[in-house]
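Please fill in the sequence for the structure shown.

STRUCTURE ENCODING:
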């Protein structure tokens, strides 16, 4: 067994070396965000954490992440005390950079551990087999070398590897039958970063249906109507599960409730005034909606119709705090919430009325992530990673899911390119993207014995393969042609708009393919390894 595990630690070492080489890479505003949070949690009393606003990058993550920053600040003090001064805005000494970069690499150990546990518990552990066709080796490679995590965490700067490690541990526990442990870990995760509310409906429905009701397979009028017989409800399990989740939230938010600061904390966590879209449009449905609004506004102007100019810096401008569209109805946070839940509902009902075990839960979780990303309010482009990471778990299990995985991961990762907009980072992001894409396609094709299509891509039909290859001319236009023909100053947002819209098409197709497969998925589709 020890010899079979050698490659795992080799991959781990290679991964760490690549991350260390990225220490001097480009840093986004998120680097200053987290430096400021280090300063806030280290220098101020807890009662002031969610009120401090010297910097525009105020603390807006749940309490567990604030305490996480506090613990990091205790180590940061030994590197450079000046980084922990709240008024030292935009501070970035060499010691500060080294510490923050190393903190991300170190906390990625949670992801490493989670991958290891998933392999041991869910994939029957390490086996002596050729690496090119080893499900365990390929999954490890897909997760540890994920392009999105490299870009967002180790260049752009965030701590997603740590958080996705907790998510994978929760999924592993839940799908292995240890549901209370899985629920506990997911509650902890929500109190680190509330964006994981995107997938909370899948947890709620699955945990209630799978854990709190006896699986007696009774055939009664009530069971036929609501999917379960109410007399099969195990009250003790329901209460126990509720106590586990509520105790986590009590530990997290309790001190702020006691201090009377809960309202202030919640106002930071859910700032609904930010607008429908982020400054750089995510590759979701609203990019198409915004594009349609722009075209209608232009067409209306050409036809001599009066188009209000009060919203010129609105949804079509690519700016933060956009509120109004020019022609189409403006979309509220409530409307996006209703649409998101409505698109999730068929999948949630499916795992309630047609339980299909852990794989059904994982599929529902991914669909919830899809729906939240595609139709949510003020979605960041980086949120696509929340779909890609769990999708890797299915891509190595099922040949049919590889099609959806490719249509998701390739445009989804490509849509992250504008995060690294400086010319110095261009060779780096292109190399990492191509390496991850080519290797993942090659490994999955070898694993599932899939023939390469006439366009050189496995799993896809001709139209889908042409779409993927279309990313090449898109990249050339956005990075060279647009400026060469003199449109950079007149239409600066067009490359971003084209990238978002084009990538949205692929992600929407992936969503449709995966949704159809999942709605027709039953326990009979589960293959025993």
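FILLED IN BY: designer on duty
SEQUENCE:
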């Amino acid at each position: 067994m020890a010899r079979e595990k050698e490659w795992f630690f080799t991959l781990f070492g290679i991964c760490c070396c690549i991350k260390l080489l990225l220490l001097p890479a480009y840093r986004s505003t998120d680097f200053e965000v987290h430096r400021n949070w280090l300063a806030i949690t280290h220098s101020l009393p807890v009662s002031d954490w969610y009120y401090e606003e010297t910097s525009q990058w105020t603390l807006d993550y749940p309490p567990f992440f604030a305490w996480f920053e506090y613990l990091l600040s205790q180590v940061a003090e030994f590197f450079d005390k000046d980084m922990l001064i709240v008024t030292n805005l935009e501070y970035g000494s060499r010691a500060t950079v080294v510490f923050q970069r190393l903190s991300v690499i170190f906390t990625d150990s949670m992801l490493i551990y989670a991958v290891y546990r998933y392999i041991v518990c869910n994939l029957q552990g390490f086996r002596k087999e050729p690496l090119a066709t080893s499900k365990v080796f390929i999954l490890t490679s897909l997760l540890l070398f994920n392009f999105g995590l490299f870009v967002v965490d180790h260049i752009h700067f965030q701590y997603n590897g740590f958080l996705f490690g907790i998510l994978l541990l929760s999924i592993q526990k839940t799908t292995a039958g240890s549901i209370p442990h899985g629920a506990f870990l997911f509650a902890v995760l929500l109190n680190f970063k509330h964006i994981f509310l995107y997938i909370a409906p899948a947890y709620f429905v699955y945990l209630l249906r799978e854990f709190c009701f006896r699986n007696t397979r009774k055939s009664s009028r009530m069971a036929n109507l609501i999917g379960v017989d109410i007399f099969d409800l195990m009250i003790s399990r329901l209460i126990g599960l509720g106590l586990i989740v509520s105790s986590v939230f009590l530990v997290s938010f309790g001190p702020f409730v006691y201090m009377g600061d809960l309202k202030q904390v919640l106002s930071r966590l859910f700032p609904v005034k930010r607008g429908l879209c982020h400054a750089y449009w995510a590759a979701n449905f609203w990019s198409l909606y915004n594009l349609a609004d722009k075209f209608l506004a232009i067409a209306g102007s050409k036809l001599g119709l009066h188009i209000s100019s009060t919203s010129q810096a609105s949804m079509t401008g690519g700016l933060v705090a956009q509120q109004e569209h020019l022609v189409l109805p403006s979309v509220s946070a409530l409307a996006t919430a209703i649409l998101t839940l409505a698109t999730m509902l068929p999948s949630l009902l499916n795992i309630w009325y047609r339980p299909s075990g852990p794989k059904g839960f994982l599929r529902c979780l991914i669909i919830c992530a899809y729906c939240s990303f595609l139709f949510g309010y003020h979605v960041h482009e980086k949120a696509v990673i929340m779909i890609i990471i769990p999708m890797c778990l299915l891509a190595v299990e099922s040949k049919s899911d590889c099609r959806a995985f490719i249509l998701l991961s390739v445009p989804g990762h490509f849509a992250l390119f504008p995060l690294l907009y400086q010319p110095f980072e261009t060779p780096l992001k292109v190399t990492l993207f191509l390496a991850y894409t080519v290797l993942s396609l090659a490994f999955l094709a070898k694993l599932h014995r899939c023939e390469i299509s006439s366009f050189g891509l496995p799993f896809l039909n001709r139209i889908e393969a042409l779409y993927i290859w279309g990313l090449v001319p898109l990249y050339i236009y956005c990075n060279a042609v647009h400026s060469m023909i003199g449109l950079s100053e007149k239409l600066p947002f067009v490359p971003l708009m084209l990238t978002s819209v084009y990538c949205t098409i692929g992600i929407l197709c992936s969503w449709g393919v995966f949704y159809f497969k999942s709605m027709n998925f039953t326990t009979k589709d589960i293959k025993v390894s």
